[in-house]
Amino acid sequence: MRYWRIILLAVVILLLSAAAIAYFSLQPRVVSVFPADGSTDLHGTTTVQAVFSTGIRPDDIEKYFSFNPNTTGVYQVIGDTLVFSPSVPWKQDVTIKAAIKPGIRSALGIPLSKGVEWQFATRHPWLLFLLDESDGTHLYAVDPRGLDVKRILPGGDSVLDYAAAPNSVIYYSARTTSGSVIRRYDLASQKTTDILDCGQALCSQLALSPDGRLLAFYRVGAGETGALWLITLKDGQSAGDPALLGQPGHTTRDPVWASSGWLAYYDQTAAAFQFMDPSTGGQASFENATGEPGSWSADGAYYTAPDLSYTQGSAVTPEYFSQLISYNPVTGLRSELTRDNRMEDLLPAFSPDGRQLVFARRFLNPQNWTPGRQIWAMNMDGTNVRPLTHTGVLNHLGFAWSPDGSLLAYLQLNTASFSGQRQLLIMEIASGVTQQIITDAYNLQWLP
Fold it and tell me: CB neighbours (10 Å) of residue 53?
């Protein structure tokens, strides 16, 4: 009897050991993660993945998967793989800490006992620009930290214009043997997709709406009036034929989207800025004599552009001056942002945080006149108006703020030189330190 008890105890122990081994072998473990721990220079749309040793349940995933800084997105469970897709692109130049906490259950209901933590870093802002070369015009990017310059688009496309989107996508128009085509290039997948064949016409001045659903562009061809058109996009593809913006027969140009969803453009025929909100059908119009390009405030409340004012003129003041005017399409109000009858103010550009405005200024009175326009800055409450450059013979233009507002890229042209070469520079706003990047670049945009 004692012998059978020993055998029974041994069987029980064996069964318990087997059950424990089975339990621990079936217990989910994190096998691998993507991006790998310590990864750097990742695109803003990078998805995060965790592969488990077994299939897992999709229940309450958000409780166990976290990020610092916190972000929102969509979680998916595909077999043994958990996938997180950020709904808003990761911020640039940020180290992100990811963590999977214990508790996630396998398909059999067994919980994860050991969590995992890792981190990865997104790339810092790159500046995009166009450069004319012997084989056409190409899109380049420069890393302001290491001053690494590289060509962006694959193949031999000669670029007419481009628009950088916040999801690591670039829309661009390229020359063809007969005219031009609008294409979409995904930086993450390095895939190019044709959006619209412009036929024998040339398409340029691309402007993408904040929600990525509408693309405005300028089209001109032989025997046709240059005008703006609008494409509706769905999943990065054209969803129907382009629609004409504005009145038929009018020359329209320079589309600029606001963060609020309003679109501003200039109607050259009517000599007025036109505004439209596709989501509400709202419209507004403001007369403007110059048609010089402007900039939306960071909150999308008003559009600022230069306009001419005329004076009686005298020995010390000119007969006209250019001031910056703000247009509010919702209220219909027009207000003066700068006013000095000795000045010519042009090319306003709001900082991303909405606190500052830079613009090009030149004195018009004989005592202070210079051939070049200098970069000036001001706070949005009208205080701290100051020059950022002091080189009277150099003209400054093409202002582009970095996404975090710490850097300002611009072009510099020597008015005393017959070469016509443009210098691309980047200024650190806090210190005023500038660095020269390359010659003859133009059309500056930061990759969001």
Answer: 15
